[in-house]
Protein 1
Amino acid sequence: MTSTMKRYRRRVIAYLLSCGVAGGLAICGAHAQTFPDRPLRIIVPFAAGGPNDVAARLVAEALRPHLGQSVVVENRGGAGGLIGTEAVAGAAPDGYTLLFGTIGPLVLSPSANASRYDPAKDFTPIGQVYRSAQVFSANPALGKKTVPEFLSYARDNPGKATIGTAGIGTLPHLTTELLKRDAAVNVTHVPYRGTNAALADLIGGQIDAIFGEVSVMAPNVQSGKAVALAITSPERSRLLPSVPTMSEVGIPALTIESWGGLLAPARVPADVLIHLEQALQKALREPSFRNAAEKQGWGQVTGSRKEFAELLASETTKWSPIVRSPGFQLN
């Protein structure tokens, strides 16, 4: 990493960790004494039923006893997560409206100058909730059981092979673009409003392949509705132990994990942020949440503000040059 990139990363982390403090110190003590005194809501910027919606609902339930209030999940899908994310950026900075943020609307779209908000200035991290791999899967009727077989088909039929994703600007979209670039294949990207919509068309035969969360794809692979070609995690998943990693099949650049976490609008009082962070850390240790996380195939996270801020900064440093590189399409 160059010295310029290191300085940029330090500035991003500093912004993320300071946004909730600026303008809030004068009132945070009085605010935190009564917070929360009414239900909170978590905005999921994607359609209901997808992996991020599932994660948000699981953590909302786990947060309830530690906040003493109910936590309502609200789906505001559209534009690859931009609509819901922008709504939270403009919400009152009181800690009652939170964002379930992901790499698409927080890193990829802003890097492509496709958003009207600045993640480093308009949000304050609370903590990461999950991290997970994607499974590259094909329709069984296609007759392709390995990545080389799929790539051979795509090269023999330029533009004909179709790959569905959760939407424009999402991590599956980025992964598809990287596959096109690094494997030198011409495939057609088909964006949907969420993973489940793409999966339905994969099973129905309308598209050839999909990049989808391991928790969503595993049951469909096990039932024979989809054929798993490879997984994007550094190691094989315990949910699909026979499926090779992208590194094993010769495309190490596609070693990519998705993630999600909670953020608040900038300028939320500092004591409220601390209260939320502590509640999240307790929620992530709840046995019910941990059991659910294991069933989803998620890796463990701490739920700390500092580590989530560092993740956001490192992901921005990693993906911005790729998204902005000549010929890369994020539309």
Protein 2
Amino acid sequence: MGVSMDLASRLLLLLEVSELGSFAKVSEYRNVNRSAVSKQINKLEQELGVHLLNRTTRSLSLTAAGSEMVNQARNLRELLNNSKRLAQNYHSEPRGELKIASSTLFGRQYVQQAILEFQRLYPEVQIELLLEDRLVDVIGEAFDIGFRIGKPKESNLIAKRIARNRLLIVAAPSFIDKYGEPETVAKLESLPAVVYSAPGLLIDKIKYRDSQGSEEFIHLNSTYKVNEVELLIKTALAGNMLTVTTAQMIENEISEGKLVPIMTHIDLIDYGTFYAVYPHRDSPLKTKLFIETLIEVVGAQIPIWETRIPGFENMYGNSP
């Protein structure tokens, strides 16, 4: 401890004096002689222009200004420790385990792609992925990240928006040849449709805004209910039924002409938005890096799935 101590180091020294209770203990702890400790505290008092310690032969006690400075020093120590901890995140490769939960189709398509990319970048991280369409209890089941549609209601979770998920109504060309292209909601409601149905969730009504801007429902004529989203597309491809699907479920069926968007003049209300949710604690760097990787895979502004639907920016009330 030469002469070159700065204000920050002297404040930390004062903190040690107050915590250990005497110059002698600090000199022992720091392995320097006692007069050096005393000298640095005197310098601190001169620098600040206030009296910090009441010294008697028996004991040391802090003055009011001294207590205030010790509080500052405590904050300073915490800040320095945090800086070190943050820096470690950047030096060392992220490592350890990352436990992720996601809704099934989104997980199969995009989370899987992000995992492959993430493992290439950060080979030290072991990943576990659970695909579930139920709402997973991220904290209770000890997940680091959950991907789901809709903002979480749980206050102990942080939500980061990933991408919007809009709706469209599709049918195969052979279906349109058979029934004609519907122009009105009434006509649409009369046509056979395949809809998603799972315990507690039946998607047979879709919200739209009418010409006055008020919310109305289209009631689909559910000829077939099924609890596997991919079968909606497969069924529509076969040409007997139309379906309502989210843009995210479309791959190349529309660009290849196998499915056609119908009733595109209707202003459909978005199905929901994909969010990443994670516990409300100082989330480790690997959580943030994974979410960033996924956003790169999905697309930051316009989700990649919308780019597969030619002209989608002018359909269903989307404004370009």
Protein 3
Amino acid sequence: MSKASLTAIVRYCDGLLRTHQSKDYDGAMNGLQVENGGSVTRIAAAVDASRATVKLAIAAGADLLVVHHGLFWRAAQPWTGKRYELLRLLLENNLAVYSSHLPLDAHPKLGNNSRLCAAMGLRNLRPFFVSHGRRIGFQCNAKITREDLARRLQSATGAKPLVIPGGPALCRRIGIVTGGAGGEVEQAAGEGIDTFITGEGPHWTYALAEELGINVLYGGHYATETFGVKALAEQLSRKFRVPWTFVDHPTGL
């Protein structure tokens, strides 16, 4: 059985993703969130760190779970009740957790945005959309009909997108930010795009998109963010010669 050092994997991830140089939402805590005994024999990748994905990772025989949405998002909470049960599950099964949120979104090769663009056949990408002091998405010039773009997005994610047809039928300047950037439609439009692809957004963005004259394609928060953790886990598998698996637990959101 191949075995790799958890410390070596964490050091590599931190350098590759610029984990400690990247700002994020308060409480996101990018990097190693839970240790194990020090060795890794199998990596599991998941979009979210939750009781369900932890159980799936354990069932897959993993001792490292790589996620996009980690365990921590707010001020420190007591490890009691369901949180204690989750902690005990991790510790009793020697499962480490490594999380990368905005650093993984923004990575030019392994990131959610880069990989989604590639899956949709979008090329000649330029940085787009500032969040927490850095551009995390991509934009490109193209001539693709709105209907074809929606088909490409569905083919890439496996989920039918919600389309707000507020802009031109022929999309010429497309911006992509995976996840929950829908609430920032006005910011995206301010960069001159006519079509915005993201995961999800609030109800009021429908009317706003029409007023701004842009198309918005909501591909699903979960569905648009499976790409980064898969790419990162595959990269780690090649470098450290340990197997990996994706544990799928879709939310439909």
